[in-house]
Amino acid sequence: MTQRTIRFTKMQGAGNDYIYVNTLIYNMSDPNAAAVAWSDRHKGIGSDGLVLIGAPEDTGNDFSMRIFNADGSEAMMCGNASRCVGKYVYERGLTRKTAIRLETRSGVKVLKLQVEGGKVAGVTVDMLEPRTEVPTQYVPERCDTPDGRLLAEGRMFAGRFVSMGNPHFVTFVNDVESIDVARYGRVLECHKAFPERCNIEFAQVTGDGRIRARVWERGSGITQACGTGACATAVAAALTDRAGRTGSIVMDGGTLGVEWRDADGHVYLSGPAEFVFDGEIEETRH
Prior knowledge:
Largest sheet: 17 strands, mixed
Number of helices: 4
Strand content: 35-45%
Number of strands: 19
Radius of gyration: 18 Å
Helix content: 10-25%
Distance between the termini: 4 Å
Order of helices and strands: EEHEEEHEEEEEEEHEEEHEEEE
Structural class: alpha+beta
């Protein structure tokens, strides 16, 4: 068993914070274990997970991204992390492109960078088309009622299932601020209807094109924001005639812009990406 020093960067998008490692320099031997240890907010760096920035498999793309949740499980996609990757590769001099093709486990996402004075002021991600039919990760026969409601801690939740490359259950409530996200989110994530577990969004339409949403993220628990969750919430609101196809999703850590375009059916996610700090940490290699 040996140890080596790895340089990392902590970044956040609307409060959704991850640890970023450039695997063009550092080859991570056990990213699952590192995600668990480093994400610990008391004994580690503290984050919602670990993001690896690497070379693409297809030379027609620019970079790849792998995401590991705080529990060590590998995620399919994260909109907030994608925006941070765009800022990282541009401001750290890995590319001068302002349109970046990023490989993820849920397909290639195109990042459009808004550059001002040599700095990335914002990033818009083409999240591709949502899947609004019943996703494969969901077993409707295992719902608690014939109309698809789910039972959690004695309370029934009606919701809409949307896949943004990863599964989401979006439930609209009358008062989202009063919802005990930890209590209900933990149960709904692991409901028998979701053999692969699920991301949970509790949402409330507040008017003026704004939706307030709070997140229980699969594998990470409560997070300040979730990019795919913001997209899923906007899509679910449009499908149920609660809102239009363009709006702002207000999450605990900030506001994200979402547009579900008629022209191509794609969902576009816009929002901030910020550096928090750089550091070094020891990785144990077995």
